[in-house]
Write a structure and sequence with these properties.
The chain is an alpha+beta fold and about 150 residues long. About 60% of the residues lie in helices and about 15% in strands. It contains 5 helices and 2 strands, in the order E-E-H-H-H-H-H.
């Protein structure tokens, strides 16, 4: 049903009335609660790591362009830069895969509270557009374009 349950049962016996009282406590966690993987991916250390990888990748792209302009694509430095680009792209593909596994639909859609009042079609459409998380689509587009450019 999309919810995980953690239950505990408490049984108490009263001797004077010889009755048994049973209390059941159930905690529901919504489906969109952050997983441990999502918490780890959003931690400061991981964010700094991937930020550093992006910055270093930008430097390598600049060096690769400079090497290509000066020496052509047959130079050894060009192939070193190409190898580093492949390494960075593998890191980005792994990061995107982990984020998609951890965040599922939250990567692309925000949860919006339901409104009980009647809405016009226009208002419903605007509310649905407000749910879109463009950064998720942007990440996927960048990785797909990079894979296509570098490996296809």
């Amino acid at each position: 049903d999309g919810m995980s349950r953690n239950s505990s049962i408490l049984v108490s016996v009263r001797s004077e009335e010889d009755t048994i009282a049973v209390a059941v406590r159930t905690r529901f966690e919504p489906e969109d609660a952050p997983t441990n993987l999502a918490k780890w991916l959003n931690s400061d250390v991981v964010e700094i790591f991937f930020g550093a990888v992006i910055a270093i990748n930008a430097i390598v792209i600049g060096v690769q362009i400079e090497v290509d302009l000066r020496f052509g694509d047959g130079h050894a430095a060009y192939y070193i830069c190409y190898g580093l680009q492949c390494l960075f792209l593998m890191v980005f593909v792994i990061e995107l895969t982990l984020r998609m596994c951890a965040e599922r639909s939250r990567m692309f859609w925000r949860r919006m509270p339901k409104v009980d009042c009647e809405e016009s079609c226009w208002t419903k459409m605007v509310r649905q557009l407000g749910r879109i998380r463009l950064e998720g689509y942007f990440d996927v587009a960048i990785v797909v374009i990079s894979v296509t450019d570098l490996w296809v």
